[in-house]
Write a structure and sequence with these properties.
about 0% strand, about 210 residues, mainly alpha
Length: about 210
């Protein structure tokens, strides 16, 4: 049997020493990483809180969502995608206000809501626009079994088009088959709003 030279450490002992030091360093780095992540999370929650509570018309949106039984995060996502919370927004096609309601659609909504003094310029009034837009989204949810992708597609392209696509098996109405929506603008709109919706859900969850 061979013997280690005097004053030298056996090879197995060296390996044990290196492993022990490596484990110690891993523990230090893990602890440091945990501290950094905790700091970043606290800072991120603070910034998210400031972001969420700085949303324009926040209280009015929550109020109308409660009245119309809507998911507030989804409505915020629609408003952000439609107008970036600008009450004076007007599209090239003529859609107006926070929720970008077309004047003729507004007239139809006003008739069903019993708004007697409606005229197109009133769509620039934030409270009225929110009331009409959320009522319309609630109506669409009843038409499309509260399926977000179908509701959003109908909000953009009209319920008649969406029903036609589904009835003709052009689109199955699911979020998994958004690429089958035949209108590029509507397909892009639904994808964009759903991405925003996911972000809003994350923000809300981070603040719980």
């Amino acid at each position: 049997m061979g013997h280690a030279k005097k004053g030298t450490q056996p090879a197995s002992g060296k390996r044990v020493g290196r492993t022990s030091r490596l484990v110690s360093w891993c523990r230090v780095l893990t602890g440091l990483a945990a501290c950094i992540l905790a700091f970043l999370f606290a800072a991120n929650v603070s910034s998210l809180s400031q972001y969420v509570y700085s949303w324009p018309y926040r209280e009015a949106v929550y109020r109308q969502c409660e009245v119309n039984h809507l998911d507030a995060e989804l409505v915020f996502s629609v408003i952000y995608s439609e107008s970036r919370f600008r009450a004076d927004a007007e599209s090239a096609a003529g859609a107006r206000g926070l929720m970008q309601i077309m004047p003729e659609t507004g007239a139809w909504i006003a008739d069903h809501m019993g708004i007697e003094d409606y005229h197109a310029e009133r769509l620039f009034e934030p409270e009225l626009n929110l009331a009409m837009g959320t009522w319309y989204m609630s109506w669409l949810e009843q038409q499309f079994d509260r399926e977000p992708a179908q509701v959003l597609a109908a909000y953009n392209a009209g319920p008649g088009n969406v029903k036609k696509w589904i009835d003709a098996d052009i689109w199955d109405g699911s979020q998994q088959k958004l690429e089958d929506i035949p209108f590029y603008e509507t397909r892009n709109y639904v994808q964009r709003v759903l991405r925003q919706y996911t972000n809003h859900q994350k923000y809300a969850a981070a603040l719980l």
